[in-house]
Amino acid sequence: MLATVSNLYPYGRVDGPITTDLAFDDPGPKARVRAAMWRDALAAHKEGRVRVTEVRGSDYLTVGANSHLGDLVTGRLVAGRSALFLVPVDNPHTFTYVPDVATTLVAAAETEAAWGQAWHVPSAPARTPREAVGDLCAAAGVQPVPVRVLPHAVVRAAGLAVPMMREMAEMRHSWEAPYVLEDSRTIAELAVKATPWETSTATVVEGYRSRGDRAARAA
Question: Does the predicted model carry a pTM greater than 0.85?
Answer without folding.
Answer: yes
